[in-house]
């Protein structure tokens, strides 16, 4: 009987993910592993429960999909209480792929070419709301990011890929101001609030260039209500990797033991690009939460 069990969790809506799943199934079986496949459903709660069962005997979890797929796999892994025994492998074939990009995993074949991968402990972000708690791998946001998601229909994501984030952002920038969310903070209003764990969000926008997942800190990003021109200038700084030079944007930092608060009652949150609960939310960093397989190379 094989000693190792590999669970392959796949975004069933992605033709690429379904194709690559079989390649990885053949690869792991050829190495003498027992492989169990799980295709995603329309209900993330169902996926979570099925993953919990499968991870109880697993040694490696391979998530083939986008950041939403990774988020589901990670939350199931932490809930299984087997993060010390199960390592995570990510094959990024989603729209944004910010987790894979942050780890330099740009090609779907990388794990096939590395039979014995490098592995390290990494941090996660934790969101706690009045409704419950959930981990995230890249970011949590409210306001602007939720509004942009509404302007990024599924067909646009499949047709344009990561470019769909930029198109949706333009639709937000030049669309009616009345459609923008307003999030209260102290005595003023924000139109967007984010907390980033990794370097990227939104399909490659670099908002936390000094992020280090092994010695993690969170970056809070607060965008006040701005005119269209002011928002354009701030977003241009983001696109150019100069977020610190965007004078209108307030930045906060939190390391282990500290927290950042975002959101408000009635304001929807999104985690790693998927809608979650309503705020307010207290966001903290959880050090050494998961074991991640990666390529030992300098990230650019």
UniProtKB/TrEMBL annotation:
One matching Pfam family: YegS_C
Annotated keywords: ATP-binding, Kinase, Nucleotide-binding, Transferase
A GO MF term: ATP binding
InterPro entries documented for this protein: ATP-NAD_kinase_N (IPR017438), Diacylglycerol_kinase_cat_dom (IPR001206), Lipid_Phosphate_FormReg (IPR050187), NAD/diacylglycerol_kinase_sf (IPR016064), YegS/DAGK_C (IPR045540)
Domain (DAGKc) ranges: 1-107
Source organism superkingdom: Bacteria
Gene3D superfamilies: 2.60.200.40, Probable inorganic polyphosphate/atp-NAD kinase, domain 1
Name of the protein: Diacylglycerol kinase family enzyme
Organism: Pseudidiomarina indica
């Amino acid at each position: 009987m094989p000693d190792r069990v590999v669970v392959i969790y796949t975004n069933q809506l992605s033709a690429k993910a379904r194709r690559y799943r079989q390649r990885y199934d053949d690869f792991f079986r050829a190495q003498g592993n027992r492989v169990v496949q799980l295709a995603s459903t329309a209900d993330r709660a169902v996926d979570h429960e099925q993953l919990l069962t499968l991870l109880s005997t697993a040694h490696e979890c391979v998530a083939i999909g986008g950041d939403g797929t990774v988020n589901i796999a990670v939350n199931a892994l932490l809930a299984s209480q087997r993060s010390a025994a199960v390592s995570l492998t990510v094959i990024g074939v989603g729209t944004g792929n910010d987790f894979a990009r942050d780890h330099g995993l740009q090609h779907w074949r990388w794990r096939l070419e590395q039979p014995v991968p490098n592995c390290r402990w990494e941090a996660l972000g934790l969101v706690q709301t009045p409704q419950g708690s959930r981990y995230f791998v890249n970011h949590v946001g409210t306001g602007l990011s939720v509004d942009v998601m509404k302007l990024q229909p599924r067909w646009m994501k499949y047709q344009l890929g990561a470019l769909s984030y930029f198109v949706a952002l333009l639709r937000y920038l030049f669309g009616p101001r009345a459609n923008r969310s307003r999030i209260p903070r102290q005595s003023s209003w924000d139109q967007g609030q984010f907390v980033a764990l990794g370097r990227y969000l939104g399909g490659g926008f670099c908002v936390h260039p000094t992020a280090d997942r092994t010695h993690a800190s969170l970056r809070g990003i607060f965008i006040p209500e701005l005119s269209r021109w002011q928002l354009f200038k701030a977003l241009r700084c983001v696109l150019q990797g100069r977020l610190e030079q965007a004078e209108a944007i307030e930045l906060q930092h939190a390391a282990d033991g500290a927290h950042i608060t975002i959101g408000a009652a009635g304001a929807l949150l999104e985690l790693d690009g998927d809608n979650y609960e309503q705020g307010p939310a207290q966001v903290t960093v959880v050090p050494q939460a998961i074991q991640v397989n990666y390529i030992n190379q300098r990230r650019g």
